[in-house]
Design brief:
The chain is mainly beta and 198 residues long. It has one domain: Porin (Beta Barrel). It is 7% helix and 66% strand. It has an eight-stranded antiparallel beta barrel with strand order 1-4-5-6-7-8-9-10. A hairpin with a 2-residue loop joins strand 5 and strand 6. The protein is elongated and about 70 Å long. The chain starts with a helix and ends with a helix.
């Protein structure tokens, strides 16, 4: 409940973002995919998943409210072991997830070169799984590939951006971008900050 209340706790003092386009590049870790798969699950061990990279394009319809699209990918590798002989790797796998989401971005606190905001996103995720079995004395190795789609969400109750047209940001949330997501963003379009603070 506290996470939901945080975005509405501060009074809005907004910049002149209206009419601006913002481009952002970010990296996140501890994503929903990483949280859903434990370190060990049915003899499945994740060996590699660094997080994800996203590119976001948003447009400010109002001074404090923007909508946009985000797209990103994450890759994971791991292995399966024999339940009766855990030291024997029966197969390895590769998993790739591509997410495309619609996001709403609301700035609820502003000072010169400082924005505090909240973000909510939802969109489809396209997942591919490739499993390669190890050959044994009794059977040759083979490869299988599967794919599935589904919806993913991101809710970041608090994010902080520091800078002018070019700025850095960091967000705390949960979902497809991860518990911690940060990067750089650049705003394109009209601005009258200099009129407010000259």
């Amino acid at each position: 409940m506290m996470l939901i209340a945080i975005p509405f706790a501060g009074s809005s003092q907004c910049p002149s973002n209206k009419g601006q386009l913002e481009l952002a590049l970010s990296y996140g870790t501890i994503t929903s995919d990483q949280m859903n798969i434990g370190v060990q699950d049915n003899n499945k061990t994740r060996t590699y998943n660094p997080g994800n990279a996203f590119i976001t394009v948003r447009y400010f319809l109002y001074s404090c409210l923007a909508f946009g699209f985000a797209g990103g990918t994450t890759n994971e590798r791991g292995q399966y072991t024999d339940p009766f002989s855990p030291s024997f790797i029966t197969s390895t796998y590769k998993k790739g997830v591509t997410t495309i989401a619609l996001e709403a971005y609301y700035v609820y606190f502003f000072r010169k070169y400082l924005e505090v905001y909240t973000l909510l996103g939802v969109g489809p995720a396209f997942t591919t799984n490739t499993t390669i079995t190890n050959p044994t004395l009794y059977a040759p190795g083979y490869t299988t590939a599967t794919s599935n789609d589904g919806l993913k969400f991101q809710y970041a109750p608090i994010g902080v951006r520091i800078g002018g047209r070019l700025g850095g940001f960091i967000e705390a949330g949960i979902g497809y971008k991860g518990l911690i997501n940060g990067g750089l963003s650049f705003k394109i379009g009209p601005s009258c900050w200099w009129k407010q603070y000259k």
